[in-house]
Automatic annotation (TrEMBL):
Subcellular location: Secreted
InterPro entries given in the database record: Glyco_hydro/deAcase_b/a-brl (IPR011330), NODB_dom (IPR002509), Polysacch_Deacetylase (IPR051398)
Residues of the signal peptide: 1-26
Residue ranges constituting the NodB homology domain according to the UniProt record: 96-300
Acyltransferase in keyword set: no
Protein name listed in UniProt: Polysaccharide deacetylase
Keywords carried by this UniProt record: Signal
Lineage, opening ranks: Bacteria, Pseudomonadati, Pseudomonadota, Gammaproteobacteria, Oceanospirillales
Pfam families given in the database record: Polysacc_deac_1 (PF01522)
Length: 372
């Protein structure tokens, strides 16, 4: 028996050495790849039409051009749940990964986008609200049409029951009652999707991209991964309850500017202040402080821009741990609504940018909200 085992070991030894070498090479490659490259560019669409509101619409011709660009530039289009798992587990992804998402479940997505996606066999996600579907509003897909989209490889995910502004409390509403209402908006919508379509992942998109730390904690407690509407690449540096997406509608549908965003990398931001993006209306020139790890970006060319593309004031200093502290301020009042600070810096050796966006939620000067 001993002689047999010795002979077997001699035969297996070369194979074991090869497997060990391959494992070591894979680990080394994983360690050498910067975590900033573990990212995906998530595209956000609404209407695919030329007869709907321009700010939330993408023409069918532009949509086809976007898909052609993804193919030409060598992007892999992944299902959203696969990307979410990789980010949550901090696992590597190829450098060029894109995700296609649609908010609200408009009928134009069924009529215009679905046939194209089916023909190209591309995965996609539609974030839906059950109320307008159940009310059979003409601009929205039906459950039968959503089932067809699901069978074509689409993921149907949660966008709240009624598409409400989650951050806004009702008159005389307590903190506890407000959070219960938010929880109901998410949980009841999930039940409706499962009831009509059989399944739904724990993936969520905030209506209007509006959230605050309290809602993020609730979403995490409910077991969801969540997406906003602020720009940037989704990566391990972005909070799993506020992953960014690039708008691909309205003026953002321009293929040239969209290509720049698709190839952008996430800044390795490890802290940002203030934690909440919700402002009270009294300070209309908010400051933003970022703590950023060293990376392959040209820090001297770090720039931030306001909502009207105006150049913001930036100061930076190196901290004792080697990280950078970057302070961003504006000398102009922000408008009411969802204004943004967009920050970029070019890559040291590649023709691409690092990208970070902070979307603010600004009420009127007296603190009141209105539907914008």
């Amino acid at each position: 028996m001993l002689e047999y085992l010795t002979m077997l070991l001699k035969k297996l030894l070369p194979l074991l050495l090869i497997l060990g070498s391959l494992t070591a090479l894979a680990k080394a490659d994983e360690q050498e790849t910067p975590v900033a490259y573990y990212h995906a560019s998530v595209l956000m669409y609404h209407h695919i039409s030329t007869s709907t509101p321009p700010s939330t619409s993408t023409s069918p011709a532009d949509f086809i051009q976007h898909l052609d660009m993804l193919e030409k530039d060598g992007f892999e289009v992944w299902p959203i749940d696969r990307v979410a798992r990789q980010i949550k587990r901090r696992r590597p992804m190829p450098d060029k990964v894109a995700v296609i998402t649609f908010d609200d479940g408009y009928i134009s997505v069924y009529k215009e986008a679905l046939p194209i996606l089916k023909e190209r066999e591309l995965p996609f996600t539609i974030f839906v609200n059950a109320d307008p579907i159940n009310e059979k509003r003409p601009l929205y897909m039906s459950w039968a049409e959503l089932k067809e989209a699901q069978e074509a490889g689409g993921i149907i995910a949660n966008h709240t029951l009624s598409h409400t502004h989650l951050i806004r409390k009702l008159d005389d509403e307590t903190e506890e009652a407000w959070l219960k209402r938010v929880e109901h908006e998410i949980a009841a919508n999930q039940q409706e999707i499962i009831k009509h379509l059989g399944s739904a992942p724990k993936i969520f998109a905030y209506p209007y991209g509006e959230y605050n730390p309290e809602i993020q904690k609730l979403v995490q407690k409910m077991g969801y991964i969540a997406f906003g509407q602020h720009s940037g690449a989704a990566s391990p540096y972005t909070n799993i309850t506020s992953l960014p997406r690039y708008a691909a509608n309205g003026t953002s549908a321009n293929p040239t500017s969209l290509r720049t965003k698709l190839h952008a990398l996430p800044f390795p931001v490890v802290n940002e202040e203030p934690v909440t993006a919700v402002l009270d209306g009294s300070n209309r020139r908010p400051s933003l402080k970022l703590t950023v790890m060293p990376g392959e970006y040209r820090i001297k060319q770090f720039r931030c821009y306001g909502p009207n593309a105006e150049l913001l004031q930036v100061s930076r200093k190196t901290l004792a741990d080697g990280n950078l502290e970057i302070n961003v301020t504006s000398d102009k009042d922000l408008h009411t609504g969802r204004p943004r600070y967009n920050c970029t810096a070019p890559h040291k050796t590649q023709n691409r940018y690092f990208w970070f966006t902070r979307q603010w939620l600004m009420p009127q000067a007296n603190g009141d909200w209105y539907n914008y």
